Amino acid sequence: MFLFSCWRTPEASLARSRRHYRRHGSRFTFVATAIILALAARRGGMAFPSISRPETNLITASPSDFARGKPAGQALLASTPERPSNSKWFSVTSLASIPLISLATAKLRGLGGRAFRVLRRSTRTTEDVRGEVTGVVVPVLAGLTGWLALMYSIQHSIVTVPFLTGAQYEYFPIVATFVAGYTVIVLEEQTEINKAATALILGVLVWALVGTGVDMTSSAFDVAIKETLEDVSEVVFFLLGALTIVEIMDAHKGFDIITKLIQAKTQRELLVIVSVLTFVLSSVLNNLTVVIVMVSLLQKLVKDEDFRMRLGGIVVVASNAGGAWTPIGDITTTMLYIGGQVTTVPLLANLFIPSVLCLIGTVGFELTRMDDKPFERTPSSPGDDEVPNGQAVVFWGGLIGMITVPAFTAITQCPAWSGMMLVLGLLGLITSLLHEPDDNRYSLKGALTRVEVPDALFFLGVLFAVGGLERVGLLKEFAIQLSNLVPSDALVAIFLGFASAVVDNVPLVAAAQGMYDISVHPANDGLWNLITYCAATGGSLLVIGSAAGVAFMGMERNVSFGWYVKSVAPAALVGYFLGVGGVLAQQALGLSVA
């Protein structure tokens, strides 16, 4: 009763519910966790048995050895000890108690979110601090401890799960932890738990379970985790460099150079100009930043809110389409570029036409639903005409620098992130010479304070977790099972595009990179071209499917999930399938560049 009473607490009873939870909530969480551990000691034995198993390097083992206890995995199955027969009842009770602990911890949305925000605005006392500890910190730690204890017990023969056999016991806790963590990420708005924090915890927990429960030599584990960190760090450093460069350009109002070119008079003209401009900018800049800049521009330019919201939705689609055909236009395209699945010239040649078709289909469909009438401009505010020193130099220097990063990589053989850091360093040098030393508005130091670091940490956590799944062969096994269910690789890629509209496309692309071996599907293969396009543009089908859509929804308060489905999704769907048809037609006609 307490849990449901504090889940959605009225503001008038926050203080009373906070006291109630401080008295009983943490006590309940401890009791639930204690019951699990006590049952483990009684039914399965808390003295974790010393399991002697042959040292098996999972990096080189066949992925089919890990699926459903198949005969192909006899080497691993033979090394897996017999599970205690008396622990089946305990496994049911343990699994059933997980939602209780999760529900107790989930009250972070209620008291941990709203009540303690009220406390932060008032005078704080020792009792308030104690309430925060017992009401937030203790449930979180208790929930994580209970979850890890259960996962460890499954891996080490304390718990028997009826639907698992053989080597699946080692990998089920890893998959379960990944699914649970990713569910919390998807439900960020409902739980009010920062997705970057969840991703970081998830990445570490996945590798902790790999290290404690999977047969792997110490040297093999050390190599696996370091190689994964190396791959992930390249993406993170590249992203941080690009975001900082764009932030410096934006601080110098460099984008005003382009926005002043907009001279449209009617709504249809403005739709076409804004869509094309967004498409072009997203091909060379981060599409998230382009959406932020373009939506901000529309808010200053268009007074009619309904028309502005519809334009913003098309901007989301155009930014994702524009980022699909260049190595630096979208984070997923960058991941595939850094991973070696696509290269610069073939990517431009193979996906430019499909991306343009996606834009044409979306804009054309929207034009049929829009009246050709003049739009009312928003009056300018004081201070908009101020031009910082070096506006043109910084804008064009940063733009040309980012465009030439792929060429720098090809000539010097240096990784892509090093080229981006070179451009950032040069831009920082230029700004330090243009402005006073203590003026942080335009400097590299000031730009770093405004960069969205949580976005980079989110990518770090998710990619690190996906890397753990890849290193133990789970993603390749998933590819085998998916290929058995869906006979066509093209349908698999299209399915990934639809999936990216529901969940973040970063882990989906990371999973695809681990699912398909580059020796079987070489660089610039037709499958990689289709995956690149579908992952980049599929997120436009729903407003929550891409970072650009989420940013748009945050900037326009009246944009909701339902409004986007009704107003933007039909046009986005037409463009998506038109682009898919373009990719497949190029391959069928032999026009793809390898």
Topology:
Blueprint: H1 2-7, H2 14-44, H3 74-78, H4 88-106, H5 111-120, H6 126-155, H7 168-186, H8 188-191, H9 195-213, H10 218-251, H11 256-259, H12 267-284, H13 287-301, H14 305-322, H15 331-339, H16 344-367, H17 391-403, H18 405-412, H19 416-434, H20 444-450, H21 453-471, H22 474-485, H23 489-499, H24 505-515, H25 526-538, H26 547-555, H27 561-567, H28 569-588
User: Treating each run of at least 4 consecutive H or I residues as one helix, how many helices?
Assistant: 28
Q: How many β-strands, per DSSP?
A: 0
Helix content: 55-70%
Low-confidence blocks of residues: 1-121
Structural class: mainly alpha
**End-to-end CA span:** 63 Å
The sequence of SSEs as H and E is HHHHHHHHHHHHHHHHHHHHHHHHHHHH
Bulk shape: globular
What is the mean pLDDT? 75
**Please, how many domains?**
2
Question: How would you describe the overall organization of this protein?
Answer:
This protein has 594 residues and is mostly helical. It folds into two domains: 2-216, no CATH class; 259-380 and 450-588, no CATH class. Helices cover 70% and strands 0% of the residues. The protein has 28 helices and no strands. It has helices at 2-7, 14-44, 74-78, 88-106, 111-120, 126-155, 168-186, 188-191, 195-213, 218-251, 256-259, 267-284, 287-301, 305-322, 331-339, 344-367, 391-403, 405-412, 416-434, 444-450, 453-471, 474-485, 489-499, 505-515, 526-538, 547-555, 561-567, 569-588. α2 runs antiparallel to α4 (88-106) and α25 packs antiparallel against α28 (569-588). The longest helix has 34 residues, at 218-251.
